[in-house]
């Protein structure tokens, strides 16, 4: 794989982690500032979605590191 694939994976990782931080932050704020007597289902679902995005983002980050290490090792052995 080329450095282009590592850039794409890195951008995807960044987008997923940004979405995760934003949704968990907004969901946490929503749950902390709930003044009503009922359960705040939307905040919990939003935080669950954020956790899922975070896991995907971390997995993409690890994949980016692996792809970069493999491509560097292959370029060294070919030289």
- State the share of residues found in helices, binned by percent: over 70%
Strand percentage lies at under 5%
DSSP helix count? 2
Q: What series of H and E elements makes up the topology?
A: HH
The N- to C-terminal Cα distance equals 16 Å
Number of strands: 0
Characterize the overall form: rod-shaped
What's the pLDDT, averaged over the residues?
Answer: 88
Largest sheet: none
Radius of gyration: 18 Å
- Unreliable stretches: none
Secondary structure class reads: mainly alpha
What does this structure look like?
This protein has 2 helices and no strands. It is rod-shaped, with a radius of gyration of 18 Å. It starts with a helix and ends with a helix. The protein is mainly alpha-helical and about 80 residues long. Helix 1 packs antiparallel against helix 2. Helices cover about 85% and strands about 0% of the residues. The mean pLDDT is about 90.
Keywords:
mainly alpha; 79 residues; rod-shaped
Present the secondary structure layout.
Layout: H1 3-32, H2 41-78
Brief sketch in words of this structure:
The protein has helices at residues 3-32, 41-78. With 79 residues, it is mainly alpha-helical.
